[in-house]
Give the backbone structure.
Amino acid sequence: MKQLGRKIQSKPSNRKQYASNYSNEVFDVLIVGGGITGANILWDSTLRGMKSILLEKDDYASKTSQATSKLIHGGIRYLKNLEIGLVKESLYEKKLLAKISPHSMRILPMMIPLYSFMEKTIMRLGLSFADFISKNRNEGITEDLIIPNRFLLTREQTIAEDPKLKRENLVGSIVYYDYANYNPERHTTEFIFSARKKGGVALNYTKVTKIAKESSGNFLIYVTDSISGKESILRSKTVVNASGPYADFIESIAGVHSEKVLVRSKGIHAVIRKITSDKSVVLKKKDGTHLFVLPWRNRNIIGTTDTVYKDDPDSMRVTKKEILELLDEVNYSYGNGNLGEKDVLNFYGGLRPLVEESSNVSDNTYSASRKTEIVDYKDFGMNGFFAALGGKYTTSRGVAEELVNKLAEFLPGKYKPCQTKEIALSGGNFSDQKTLIKDVAKKFPKLDSVKLETLINRYGSDTFSLPLDTNLHEFYKLENGEVFYPEEIDFICKNEDIVFAEDILFRRSGIANIGKSDPTVIKKILTRIGKNLHWSPRRVFMEEKSIYKRFDLV
Ligand SMILES: Cc1cc2nc3c(=O)[nH]c(=O)nc-3n(C[C@H](O)[C@H](O)[C@H](O)COP(=O)(O)OP(=O)(O)OC[C@H]3O[C@@H](n4cnc5c(N)ncnc54)[C@H](O)[C@@H]3O)c2cc1C
């Protein structure tokens, strides 16, 4: 994980809120960590009427939540470990995410090639069981996201569908459907900004450095602004540790420890030129573990890996050696060994926060459970301190619900019940895409239809809030054929806590996640960002350099 390694002395102009603005207030809930877990807890607790604040030391969704395979999935793989509860929970939460944020989800066919009749039988049984426990999977879902039935393909049909698959011993394949999360980094911030619209507070680039209790029983939370270095103290009745792979550090600065052990498991992905059809393929690595080749934004994502990581989380980097090994694994079972370093357009990695009993820690993290652990530290001498550890992106809404139930029990006030199953996120307020397109077209009758659909695909019902200018014909065409518009940049710069260019290029918009684009296009985008944020030409130049540095593979 990248440390900032650069301090900007002058205040970036769009940061409207700082921790020091809140020094005189007492919050009900203070959340440490702005990944998907913290974002969901902020959203849920704010909707229930709690006075909540979230603090993130870098940018929102810049750590594990930025490193996913972009799947909102039913967790079929966990059936192998007989983790029925986790599969059930994942299938349920997958449906709820499609319901509350339909604009962020896409249906994704997953093809698993089968290499023995035994495997075929086991997969059929497993998926029949998953179908059975998710009978209502399409209830309340917009028609664009209705999950079709799974089906089997014969060997011949499988080869016709994907000629690049390894054919030796191939007996057929099974195709089932999950959702792809088009841009999880943006999706995470949608929880945060939706909460902000309801009164929640969120601050990025604000690091928690110490947690103590004062005699009143409230917590004192010491924070440092990661940009200016300014220190402040905040007060809250409860604290939630949602810092993912940093959870043990937060325990240390609070002076508490639970019995569980946090194991960090490193996983990497590469974004490569498109080599599949629109179906994902689930391949087997040499050691029998699985590997995805996922279609995404006219590219493929390949991944992932699973290795215990024991160093400082902030020093985590994806290495060239790891990427070459990943390519080698794909070449082993797919595409006749054609992939090389030249095909890698981007890469990323993250640390899974896995929670283990101290007696059960092993170096095989692939088989370790992905279930979440909610810890109430009253059992460890600190009343009002809680943690949500481990888990999946997919199950984070449910985790937040369970945790906020505990907060509601602990806090003295009376709060509303959980509403995150029903209330759509900002952008998700529409019944179906066709109607939304018609409604937006009514408001902006002169808007070009391609632009209209592109924006609706990205922002859903928030398209109404974009500062659309029907006389502005400028656009930025990326290397994968996608088009972005100046109004998007303006909207994000104005509303979404942008401090560095990478916040917008790698997270809020995802422009750079597909790999490098034409430098003149990137320059234009950076100039537009600079104009919005009042950057000097030198600052624009420095930001440009730092964007390109992200693509260096060493
Ligand atoms: C390779 C890989 C692939 C995955 N694929 C999927 C997938 O396809 N689908 C799925 O459902 N799940 C997937 N997961 C799991 C999923 O990514 C995680 O469960 C989830 O992102 C964890 O989110 P989090 O908010 O708990 O942690 P994080 O996203 O890491 O957030 C924790 C935040 O806390 C902040 N923080 C730390 N210390 C401090 C401090 N002192 N002060 C303030 N802030 C602090 C960090 O900067 C960080 O942003 C994958 C994980 C990996 C690694």
In short: Residues 1-5, 9-13 have pLDDT under 50 and may be disordered. The chain has three domains: 19-64+186-260+368-410, 88-96+109-184+262-349, 433-549.
